[in-house]
């Protein structure tokens, strides 16, 4: 009896616990799921679980969901529509590479939307001329295909939003989100004027989140219009509304790209500032150059070799081609090569915080599976046929998921010397000229076609000659854009696609619109090339600057060797060549101006040495001058001054241009207290209140004394003349 009672008590207690578990599951389902159609509970006990009607459960959860929003809603439209995430989207600073990948993914969304817009535009034109039942059925089938593309795009955007609202509710939420976006942009503009970096960073993150949600809702609304879930009655109105909504989502996705780009450049800017502010003990900038759009790093090497150069730059790749190369390497037994390709692709698609496209995660996981198989293959041997077939099938499955195979990646290109890096930059700059001229030619052709179509639209007629001319030109342009990697050419390929179809249906206005869209993309590419060349010139100048320093040092060593051998004629020839290469030009760096003066002295001494008997003393004098030249070149951006202390001892110092008398006293290698030290630059002692105003000029003879010595003050006229 006791045992039976105990069993019943435990059973009742177990049932209570299970009931609590079920209610918790339901609550979690309500909180973190936008659609709950069924709940399967498997319980290994005698507890009877009532059958739950899916529709009633969904309706009940929707009502509970709506009521809970009143309690949980913090007031932001983003929080009303977005399902809470485990990792909140407003993250701290992310890796720059991840942010760049997010920009790529945002552009991929734009390409998908642009493609759907192009197809929908042609569909709307064709539907106007659809008269028979078969024509209308064909239109409906094409519409269903576009609707499926929209569904896939919607699912592929991992911004989680509640999917159980009506068309009217989503319209209202979208309106609230747009109002908030305008407020955020006003806040951003104010922060820019006030140069408030903290508010800029926070607002930028909020705009990234806001635009992501807007794009998702606009894609959803376009699908609702096209799927007949709005209050619009006719198919024509629904299609037009879907088109306008998609055009709005395209605009929002561009705003998203801009905000992601701003974030990336801000992070890169922080790194650039950190690099530029890194100086050595005399205030010289370290030999690392980080300028907008590129990175150049000069590394010192041991021995007689010059410094090696690493240029970090962007490179375009075709992922499908890379996968084909990986498969080919596996087939040939080149294991290391295949692993290298797969590792680079995994790195491209493995982005820890990315929240723009879900397919990235699937592609990365599938690539890791292939890599694991490749890793287990024997060295230098072709794999078994079964394994090769398996890998080939997996690669084909990945290729199907990659709708946008052209990607831009960062690569580090190493050069053995500064000279080779410099020549490479020059060739790169020259290589853009043919592309620039070709784009100008194609742009002119498109503008010509657009004008012909504009005239045809007004007359509602086009001659066969003009029609065929435009068709031939557009076909040729399509072939050209398909071979391109850069984003403007990829978008041009999308915009050129519908032109021929619209032309065949005599929709001249629509065809003209897409011609002008393509012209805008080509203009964008021309602007990119201008920017790239501008950056390349800066990069080339920085490499040349380092190369020039190194080459002068080598030439000085060669001249010194000739002088030691008493070969004054050859030494003078080398000096003349050195002057011609680097000193017969407008010099702006203080160190180079000083070096030019020293080189003149060297020329005079070398000429006199050839005529005198006491050549050894002159050669030694030249050697000292050369050492001074090397110092000046190493400190080419600095002023050189002589500082004399109270005890009469002098020392040479290199200071940054613009250094004041107060800044000089605060230098680590002086560390003199302004309250106890007097400073003179040859025109009397500088008053204490003017120490922070008087700048030390190039070549100044600075005297320092303790204040115990009676000072002779500078007059106002003398102070003004400094």
Structural features, described:
- The protein is α+β, with helices and mostly antiparallel strands and 722 residues long.
- Helix content is 66%, strand content 7%.
- It is built from 21 helices and eight strands.
- The strands form two sheets. Strands 1-2-3-4 form a four-stranded antiparallel sheet. Strands 6-5-8-7 form a four-stranded mixed sheet.
- Helix 4 runs antiparallel to helix 5, helix 5 runs antiparallel to helix 7 and helix 16 runs antiparallel to helix 17.
- The longest helix is centred in the last third of the chain and has 57 residues.
- It is elongated, with a radius of gyration of 36 Å.
- It starts with a helix and ends with a helix.
Characteristics:
four-stranded antiparallel sheet, 8 strands, 722 residues, alpha+beta
Give the topology.
Elements: H1 2-32, H2 54-72, H3 77-81, H4 96-128, H5 133-156, H6 167-193, H7 197-226, H8 235-276, E1 288-291, E2 294-299, E3 308-318, H9 319-332, H10 335-349, H11 359-375, H12 385-401, E4 406-415, H13 418-459, H14 464-482, H15 487-504, H16 508-564, H17 568-583, H18 590-611, H19 615-634, E5 639-644, E6 650-655, H20 661-665, E7 677-680, E8 701-706, H21 716-720
Helix pairs in contact: 4-5, 4-8, 4-15, 5-7, 6-7, 7-8, 9-10, 9-12, 10-11, 11-12, 13-14, 13-16, 14-15, 15-16, 16-17, 16-19, 17-18, 18-19
Concise description?
The chain is α+β, with helices and mostly antiparallel strands.
> What kind of oligomer do you see?
single chain
Extract low-pLDDT stretches: 1-74, 87-94, 272-294
The helix count comes to: 21
Task: Quote the average pLDDT.
Answer: 80
What's the gyration radius in Å? 36 Å
> SSE string, helix = H, strand = E?
HHHHHHHHEEEHHHHEHHHHHHHEEHEEH
Could you give the distance between the termini?
111 Å
What is the total tally of β strands?
Answer: 8
As a percent range, the share of helical residues equals 55-70%
Shape: elongated
Main β-sheet, in a few words? 4 strands, antiparallel
Class by helix and strand content? alpha+beta
What is the beta-strand fraction? 5-15%
Strand order in space, largest sheet: 1-2-3-4
